[in-house]
C-alpha cells in the first residue's frame, strides 16, 4: 500500500485559501476538479487516528503518518466510560474495570472514591499499545492510508495557493527520504510536535511524567483487581499526583511534576516507597517518561494546518487526562474539515478551520479546562490543601459530582442545597487543614 506514496505529487490549488475574515465557508472555498481534498495527519495516537478516521469516512483523501506503529506511548491508560461508547471501543480491549479509586493524602489518610458508582459504571484501564493500534486500524479500514514513517519536516508554502509538503523517512528503521504534497495538515504529533514548530504555534508549559510498569506476582495483582490508587503529597510531587493503575498482568506506577522536573526520579522513588508493601517482589518491565502539556498552545490553527490532542495542549491540569480530549479534538477537527470541504470536494482555508473546529472546541471545553486549572491551584498548592482535598473526597455528593463529570464529560446535575453544603465543607476542610498544616510545620522545628 505504501508503494504508491513514494512520490511528491504537485497539487494545483488555484483558490485563495487562507483568509480568516471570509464570512461563509462556500465563499472561501473552491471546488477541486477531478480529485478529492488531500489531508496529511501527522501522528497516529488517539488524536491522529480519530482525525484520520473522520476525514477518510467523510470522503477526504487521507494519509496518516506514524513513526512507531508498534510502539507504546508512555501513559497511564485510564479512560472515561463515555469514550467507550462514543468511540465504539470494544470491551475486550479493556484490561481492568476500576470501580474504586483509592486516594492517599500526604499523611496517608485514605479514601475510596467510587461509593456512588452504578453497577455498570467503571474507569477503563487499557494499554496504549492496544488502544492505539485498534484506533489506527479502524482509520485504515475507513480508507485512510497509514504511512509508517518519521516526519522530519513540514514545508509551509510561501504562497497561500500552494501545497504543504510533508518530508518523511519511510518505514520503521529505514533511512529512505520521501515527500508528499497535501492541501491540509492535521498536527497530531503529541507534546513535542514538529508540526507546531513548523507553523510557529508557540510553546506551552508542560509537566514531565515518569512511569514504571511493574509485573506483580498473582497474589499481589489480586489487590488491584478493580482498584487504582492516587497518592498526593510533596514527597511524590509538588504539583501533581502519583498513581498506581492496574493493567492485565502488571501495574503502571508513576508520577509527574511541572515545577521540579529535575527531581522527577526522586519523586518516583517516593511513590515506590509509599506503595512498597503492595508492589515489593514485582519486576520492572518498562520504564517510560514523557511531557504532558499544561495548557493550550498560543496558536492552534494557522493557514491550512490545525493542531489537535497533545500537540494543541488539550490535557486537563488537575488530572493529567488527555486521551479522551485527544480523540475528541481529532474527530472534531476531521469532521470540521469534511463539513467545510463538502465531503472533500472543495478546498478549505484558515477561516474554515477556525469556525468548524476551534470555535466548536472552545465552546464545548474551554470552561471545563478553566475550572480544572482552578481546582489544581487551590488543592495542589500545599500538603495542607491536599489533606483538605482527600477529606472532601469522602463526601458522597462530591464523589457523585466528580465521577459524573469525569465518566460522562458533562456537568453533573447538582442539587442547590447540596452545592451550598459542599461549598461550606470545602471552606471548612481548607480552614481545618491549613491549621493542621501550620501546626505540623511548627512541630517539625
Ligand atoms: C506518563 C503519562 C501518563 C498518562 N496517563 C494518562 C491517563 O491515564 N489517562 C489519560 O487520559 N491521559 C494520560 N496521559 C496523557 C495522554 O497520554 C495524552 O494526553 C494522549 O496520549 C494524547 O494523545 P495524542 O494522540 O494527542 O498524542 P500522542 O498519544 O502522544 O500520539 C502522538 C503520536 O505521534 C507520533 N509522532 C510524534 N512525532 C512524530 C513524527 N515526527 N512523525 C511521525 N509520527 C510522530 C508518536 O509516535 C505518537 O504515536 C498520560 C501521559 C503521560 C506522559
Keywords:
445 residues; alpha/beta; FAD/NAD(P)-binding domain; D-Amino Acid Oxidase, Chain A, domain 2; 3 domains; 8-stranded mixed beta sheet; 7-stranded mixed beta sheet; binds flavin-adenine dinucleotide; Geranylgeranyl diphosphate reductase, chloroplastic; Geranylgeranyl_Rdtase_pln/cyn; BchP_ChlP_pln/prok; chlorophyll biosynthesis
Distance between the termini: 69 Å
Q: Report mean pLDDT, rounded to a whole number.
A: 87
> What is the rounded Rg?
23 Å
Output the CATH class name of the largest domain: Alpha Beta
Structure ligands? flavin-adenine dinucleotide
Proper CATH architecture of the largest domain: 3-Layer(bba) Sandwich
- Could you give the order of strands across the largest sheet? 10-9-8-2-1-11-18-17
How large a portion of the residues is in β-strands, by DSSP E? 15-25%
Shape: globular
| Low-confidence runs of at least 5 consecutive residues | 1-27, 435-445
CATH topology of the largest domain: FAD/NAD(P)-binding domain
Largest sheet: 8 strands, mixed
Class inferred from helices and paired strands: alpha/beta
**Fraction of residues in helices?**
25-40%
EC number: 1.3.1.83
Domain Digeranylgeranylglycerophospholipid reductase catalytic: 223-286
GO biological process, one term: photosynthesis
Family: Belongs to the geranylgeranyl reductase family. ChlP subfamily.
